[in-house]
Design goal:
Largest sheet: 4 strands, mixed
Order of helices and strands: HHEHEHEHEHHHHHHHHHHHH
Distance between the termini: 39 Å
Shape: elongated
Helix content: 55-70%
Strand order of the largest sheet: 2-1-3-4
Radius of gyration: 29 Å
Number of strands: 4
């Protein structure tokens, strides 16, 4: 055992020297992750989209239509860029990308409201900008409903009805919505807290492929195995330890920014969440070993690894719910470690569920070591005899 630990230490020191001697390692890990963290933390620092530009086509030109426009401008998510009486002008502004939505106040809007004829208000949004269009639509719909209710309230007050009776008539059913662990509706809590660990996983997979594959390409794998005493397992453990420690350190820095500085909620245990992150990083490293063990060339392994890791963002379920995917896509999502880490994150951070709910996801992350063990004889043979093509 002493010899094994000594060999692991020697391989670890050798890998540290390689990391320091090649700036690419640190630039592709520390540099890329810190830039990504700065980008996403500043991109979504407000938490939700605000001041979506819209255009208003006022065909009524009355006091009630002007009040409607004033109420819309007062909302934090809408910024009226254009007020016109020409729908053609508003449509051209949308085609130029200047506005995300068009709010059309019909002619005789006030007269129809006064006679309770329920005038129709038209919304037009562009789906070329999904978040902007949907946010603008929600705000336009909210303003239209509020103005309609306010007008009905004034009319009913003049008829002698009390406010309690009016509210029962205008809104007979009161709906209360409570967003678990995120009452602010902050998109950063849902997106950035998964995007950043996902990027860390991409870095872990790509650099694992490169670190092992470059040994083959540069014909230095025999030296690597010699330092490990000819033991493939010792060689892999010694090589991956410094990278794993580096990625986990970056993950801790990310967590401190998210859960301490930005104040993201964690209803469960921070330690279990970090443990899930460690399992996720190790799973991505195992998949990197699988890919370099199966691909005959380094560039092929890197290309497939980039495609595989990026698909995790789509299949994990944090941008599009997994239960809404087709059955075969749901099954396919299980081959992505990010999917299982996302389940652990939701259980620990947002739901505060007991760890027993996360055990299946944690075991799934551990299971990613199985294909790495299966490819070990092939990769060991390649490292020992250097029979991988270099071109």
């Amino acid at each position: 055992m002493r010899t094994i630990f000594l060999n692991i230490w020697n391989v670890l020191l050798r890998e540290l020297r390689r990391m320091v001697s090649r700036p690419l390692y640190l630039a592709a890990s520390v540099g890329a992750f810190l830039v990504s963290m700065f980008f996403f933390m500043t991109l979504m620092q407000k938490g939700a989209a605000e001041l979506m530009p819209v255009a208003v086509v006022d065909l009524d030109q009355t006091s009630i239509s002007r009040r409607l426009i004033h109420e819309m401008q007062a909302t934090p998510s809408v910024d009226i860029q254009l007020i016109t009486s020409s729908y053609q002008e508003a449509r051209e502004a949308m085609q130029r990308g200047e506005v995300y939505g068009i709010f059309v106040v019909p002619a005789d809007f006030y007269r129809h409201l006064a006679s309770f004829k329920r005038p129709r208000v038209d919304f037009y949004i562009t789906n070329a900008y999904t978040v902007g269009g949907n946010t603008a639509y929600k705000q336009m719909l909210t303003v239209a409903n509020l103005v309609s209710g306010a007008f009905q309230r004034e009319v009913l007050r003049k008829k002698g009805m009390t406010d309690e009776m009016i509210m029962r008539r205008i809104q007979p059913i009161t709906v209360e919505g409570h967003m678990i662990a995120n009452p602010w509706g902050n998109y950063m809590i849902y997106l950035v807290s998964i995007v950043l660990p996902g990027i860390l996983g991409v870095i872990a997979l790509i650099l694992t492929i490169f670190a092992v594959g470059y040994e083959l390409k540069s014909r230095s794998s025999k030296e690597w195995l010699a330092v490990a005493g000819g033991n493939y397992t010792v060689a892999m453990i010694g090589k991956l330890i410094p990278y794993t420690v580096l990625y986990l350190t970056l993950g801790v820095v990310c967590y401190m920014m998210l859960f301490t500085v930005a104040g993201f909620p964690v209803l469960g245990s921070h330690w279990r969440l970090l443990f899930g992150l460690l399992l996720f990083i190790m799973a991505m490293e195992m998949m990197g070993i699988v890919l370099i063990g199966c691909m005959p060339r380094l560039r092929d392994a890197l290309s497939v690894g980039a495609l595989y890791s990026m698909l995790g963002f789509s299949l994990s379920g944090f941008t599009y719910p997994s239960m809404g995917m087709m059955p075969f896509v749901q099954a396919l999502s299980n081959i992505e470690p990010l999917r299982h880490y996302y389940i652990i994150y939701v259980n620990e951070a947002l739901m505060g569920a007991p760890f027993s709910n996360s055990i299946p996801a944690a075991l799934a992350l551990v299971a990613f070591s199985i294909p790495a063990l299966c490819v070990a004889p092939r990769l060991h043979h390649a490292l020992k005899y250097q029979n991988y093509p270099i071109n």
